[in-house]
Amino acid sequence: MAVIKEENYHDEQNKNNILKLRKVLDTLPPFCRDFFRGIEPYTSTRTRLAYAYDIRLFFEFLHETNSFCKKREITELPLSVLDMVQRTDIEEYLDYMSLYQKDGKNITNEERGKARKLAALRSFYNYYFQSERIEKNTAALVPLPKRHEKEIIRLEPNEVAILLDQVEDGTKLTKKELENKIATFTGGRAAEEVVFGEVTTGASNDIEQATKIARSMITRYGMSDDFDMVAMETVTNQYLGGDASLACSADTQNEIDRQVVELVRREHEKAKKILMDNRQKLDELSNYLYEKETITGDEFMAILKGNEEKIEVKEDEDYEKTV
Q1: Residue 6 — very low, low, confident or very high, per pLDDT cuts 50/70/90?
Q2: Nearest 10 degrees: CA dihedral of 58, 62, 65, 67?
Q3: pTM higher than 0.70, yes or no?
Q4: Which residues contact 224 (CB under 8 A, 6 or more apart)?
Q5: Rounded CA gap, 175 and 216, in Å?
Q6: Which of 149, 233, 279, 309 is deepest in the core (most CB within 10 A)?
Q7: 3 pLDDT band (50/70/90 cuts)?
């Protein structure tokens, strides 16, 4: 019965969000509908509704402050208005969001709220820019406000050291566990490829660690079918830097290199497939981090399992009061 009740809750929430979204879209320029149809496959109804509220605030600001927009109703604005907007217009909009009045009430936004609004605007602009319907991606020029009062939950330095020590000496790790560690280290690069379609230098250390694990599996731990239980590499002075040397022919070294590349490539592809299969959850987690800057293990699993209403019902109510 609990499962049925949970499913009914999600269905009801999605229906309500869709109806609210349609009402907001009726107040926006017609071209906005293309954006929301475009992001529908990989965003939740809650995310799209939040984007719609924020984008409406942006057009309301333009309608009040921009000489071109003042002469027209918001629903009559053409797509070309996005190219008319300058970087300073968006920066003034974010400054305006710090304190403005709506329905006779003062509404404030700190860095977290302004970052959320700029994130929505960036996604909005990027959609039309990538489809070559506008010439400038102006929103991308504005830096994202971000607080640093709290850190995003991640492995502590001692936890990273323990993990790498286990990989180094093979303690308590199975072949499958080591393969999953490689996939984990390639996850950052995989996310760049899946989300942005390009790569950065940010994954350099992850690449080094993934390669190190793969090479150890093949040369030291006997986890290659071709080499069986033969040690191809020895480590001397393990506690003084761990110098490693191969004890095999040049042809065998080439084969080792080939297998290392193949192993890392396979786990890299696995990481990309996991992210693509769970793209909606990836976006929901990213949006949550944009808003909260931190995430606990319980919150992460709640979003991953589709139980995010347990942590967001009150937040939804508070957010709608501001829009």
Answers
A1: very low
A2: 170
A3: no
A4: 217, 218, 259
A5: 11
A6: 233
A7: very low
